[in-house]
Structure formats: structure tokens, C-alpha cells
Amino acid sequence: MTFPRLGSGAAGTLAALWPRYDRTKIKTGIVHLGVGAFHRAHQAVYTDGVLARDPRWGIAGASLRAADTRDALQPQDGLYALSLRDGQGETLRIIGALREVLVAPEAPAALIAAMAAPDVRIVSLTVTEKGYCHDPASGRLRADHPDVIHDLAHPNAPRSAPGYILAALRARRAAGLRPFSVLCCDNLPANGHTVHQVLQDLAELQGSDLASFIRGEVACPSTMVDRIVPATTDEDRARIAGLLGYEDAWPVVSEPFSQWVIEDQFRADRPDWAAEGAEFVADVAPFELAKLRLLNGSHSSLAYLGYLSGDETVAEAMTRPDMASFVAHLMEHEVSPTLPAAAGLDLASYRRALQMRFANPALRHRTWQIAMDGSQKLPQRLLGTIRDRLAAGAPIAALALGVAAWMAYVTGIDGQGKAIDVRDPLRDELRRRTDAAGREAARLAQALVGVEAIFGTDLPQNKQFMTAVTAALEQILQQGAPSALAWFHACQARL
Ligand code: CS2
User: Fold this and answer.
1) Domain end residue (candidates: 259, 281, 303)
2) Do 92 and 217 fall into the same domain?
3) Atom of ligand 1 at shortest distance to CA of 296?
4) Which atom of ligand 1 is nearest to the CA of 38?
5) Are residues 124 and 49 in the same domain?
6) Cα separations in angstroms, 140 against 52, 91, 219, 300, 456
7) Are residues 223 and 295 in the same domain?
8) Domain-embedded: residue 108
9) Residue 263: what are its φ and ψ, rounded to 5°?
10) pLDDT reported for residue 344
11) 342/446 same-domain check
12) Using an 8 Å Cβ cutoff, are 465 and 443 in contact?
């Protein structure tokens, strides 16, 4: 079956799903770096709601690498379907907030000019953890990062997100325009603070006086973003085309749940995202910590243990009773005690909701997708929690099993001896270490905790940590991940 392509011409037929505003009246107020599925199912959706009342906040998206999003969305006038799915069914809505998609490597100057336009008051980002070119253990920019080295040599044709932001801030200052606010929407700890620091570090390396300007004048509110958005599949595209009666080359599929908590620290104007369900708060830290440690910490543990158990998706992994009860234990007994109380955050119901969200049978969220870039994720998802537990003299058995599963995963060989396609910016270094160590648990654990950018200098020295991780790793390597889970439960039962 072939369908006509989705585009402005479908407004009449799809009226019930259509954006509730005149798209020709929209102006660009936001430039978003990293127009992946997550942005299009999250911030773009809140903004789409705002546009019905306030046309000043249209989004110009930018891809920092590939042209695929632009190539797919341009013939559709930037329109795409948002599909929300769970066990109950599927609902569709057409999102119109994206006015254009720029492809940075094709025309760096055009992106810098778009960010320096007078009407742009916000530059938001979802460039994933590795997009900040920082050391995840210390939160500081890596001067030896290839993109940083490139951006120092070519400040007006940069590659990295921080490089583009600096170039645009410089251009605005030269034109006498106020800086935009920088809104980080990635799963980093204190994400606003982290991006603020990385920008200052890059400006200092450039030797420009922009560093003190950024320190004093550029607002970088922190945010907690939450919505599970797996990569779109061909099967999704075919199903959505059947439902719409139009072919959409770039739809996004997500769970119904969505949350956005934003620190209200904008120096300039900002959209009224609160009218669309976002929360503006004075301090995001408690929300962010709870989300990174409970949701993302469980997600990464599920991804490594699930992948090694042969589970293709998170939902599939959650159908194993041993896995579901492991996640429940991890969240309740090891993570929650490390979280400060926050107004309006009921941890018990938050945990229950997470169990249901992970088990959503309509989402095919691949364990392999979440397993990606573990070196950038582990510190804020599991290791910070571990440090707090160690300081409190509390057990870390479940957290250690998650870390051990990551170690087994990055060896690049699964329990059946099959190769794993490990994607990680530190992959070469990890592989060098795992190849040299072999599959003996104590040696392998020792070799991997030596990566200071992940584990810092304290954890390798900690006996309790090393003992717990080595014991868990030994189980995984010798018995396989499903038996390691059974072993974990047996140990808990004996306590
Ligand atoms: C996931 C997140 O891919 C991953 O690492 O843990 O993308 C997760 O789905 C989101 O943070 C949910 O808000």
C-alpha cells in the first residue's frame, strides 16, 4: 500500500490531529541542537502546545552530524506524527513546532547565524551525554577531545555543541545582542551547571574574554527531562502510515508519560511551558537526582543484564520475575535511601510508576540502545549512588551487579561467545583493557576500574566496592546473567 507523503496539504484530512495554530504566523524563538527522537517527542511537543497561544517560540532544529532528519522532514514541511503507545492502545498527533532543520557540517556559518538571530532567546540541547566533550567523572571539558582540538583551530566552523554555542554568543556580543539562555535537556548531573562549566572551559582554552562573560551573563537553567522514546522502527513507520493514511518518514513513538522540570533561571523571556504541564521550580537537583538514579540507573542495569540474558527489549527483560524483583530491590533498598526528600516527590509511587513504564509492552526499547555509551552514563546513573552508599556503610549488592554487567558487556563477547556491537566513545580504550585482562573476574574488574574518566581515583581503592563488583562479575562470567540474578536473590534471602 502506498500513501501520499505527509505535509501541509494534509491539514484538512487530518484536522483532528493537526497543530492548533497557523504555522505561517510562527517565528523562530528557539534553536535546538540535536533534533533526535527524544527532542521531537518531548520539548517540541510542549512547545507545540505553547504555539497555539504564543507564536514567538517556533523551533529551528540543528543536526550536528547527519542530514537524515532534515532529508526526511523537509519534504513534509517539518511535520511529523507523535505516537503515544501502551498496552491500552495508540494515539496520534501531528507536531508542527519544527520550522526547519539545519545540518551543521553542511553550513556551519548558517547555524551560527541562526543562533545569533535577534529573536532567538533560547538555545536548547539534546546531544546525548557524549556531546559535551567532557570528562564524565569530573564534569570538566576534555582539552584532548578531538572535537575540542578541532574547535580551537576553527572557532567559526566548529563541530561540537559547546563550540557552536560559543561562536554564536561571540557573534551576538559583537552585534550588541543579549545572550540566549542555554537549556541543556540531556541526562547529565546538574546539567545546567555542567554545560555552563564546559562553555567556560572552552572559552578559557580559546583565550578569549568570553569565559567571564559566560560566567556572569549567560543563564544555563538545569532541567530534568523524562519520557521513554525508543528509536523508531520500519514497523512503526508502516503502522503509522496505515493509521494516518499518509506516509511519514520520521515519526516518533513514545510512552504516554512525560515530565519536564525546569529551573526558573532564565535571564530573558521564556515560553510558558508550564501551561503544557512542565514545572518551573527554584531547584531541580532533587528531581534530577531521583530520575537519574532511579529511572536511568535501573535502565542501564536492565540493559546490560537484559542484553546478556538474551532479552531484546526492556519490556521483555521485565517479564522475568528475577529481573523485575531485582529492579524493585535496586530502587527501593539501594537507590532511594540516597535521595533527599523533595517537595511533591513521593518516591514509593514514583518507583511503582517506573516498574509499569519499563514493562510497557507496546514499546520496543532495545536493551542494546540503552547499553550504548555506558562510559558516559555510569557515573551519574550508578557510581554516584554507590559512593553515597559506601560513605554510609550500606550494602551495594544490586548496584554492583549493574556495574559488573556493564563490565561483562564491554568485553564485547556475550555468554554464548557471540560478539557484542559495543558503541562507546571510549570503546577502544575499554577493549584494550578487556583484551589484556581476559575473562578472569578479578583481573577484568581491576583493569576496567582503572579508567579514571569513569571511576575516578577513589572507587578502585575501595575494598567494599571492588569485592562486591568482582563477586558479581564472577557470577556473570561463569554462570551467565540469568544465574547471576538468581544468585543475587539467594544472597539477599540469606541476609
Ligand atoms: C535511556 C534514556 O537510552 C537511555 O540511556 O535510559 O534515554 C531514558 O529512556 C530517558 O532518560 C527517559 O526519560
Assistant:
1) 281
2) yes
3) 6
4) 7
5) yes
6) 40, 42, 18, 23, 13
7) no
8) yes
9) -75, 130
10) 76
11) yes
12) no
Whether 228 lines ligand 1, by a CB cut-off of 6 Å, is yes
Structural domain range at position 424: 285-494
Place of cell 551487579: 401
**By CB neighbour count within 10 A (0-12 exposed, 13-18 middle, 19+ buried), where does 20 fall?**
exposed
Residue-wise pLDDT tens digits, 242-255: 999 999 999 999 99
Is the CB–ligand 1 distance for residue 134 below 6 Å? no
Alpha helices in 64-158 (DSSP H): 68-73, 108-115, 146-153
Q: Which ligand 1 atom minimizes the distance to the CA of 230?
A: 9
Is the shortest distance between the CB of 299 and ligand 1 below 6 Å? yes
293 touches ligand 1 (CB under 6 Å): no
Q: Is the pLDDT at 42 greater than 80, yes or no?
A: yes
- Measured CA to CA, the distance from residue 441 to residue 469 in angstroms comes to 9
For 379, which DSSP code?
A: I
- Strand runs (DSSP E) across 51-132, as ranges? 58-63, 80-86, 89-95, 98-103, 122-125
pLDDT band with cut points at 50, 70 and 90 for residue 187: very high
- Which residue's CA is minimally distant from atom 13 of ligand 1? 226
For residues 400 and 313, state if they share a domain. Answer: yes
Cα of 4 from ligand 1 centre, angstroms: 33
Residue 1 lies in a domain: no
CA of 350 to the centre of ligand 1 (A): 16
Nearest ligand 1 atom to the CA of 381 is 6
Same domain, 165 and 19: yes
Output the CA torsion sign for 323, 357, 383, 187.
Answer: positive
Mean pLDDT computed over 187-205: 97
Within a 10 A sphere around the Cβ of 241, how many other Cβ atoms?
21
Res 345 pLDDT > 90: no
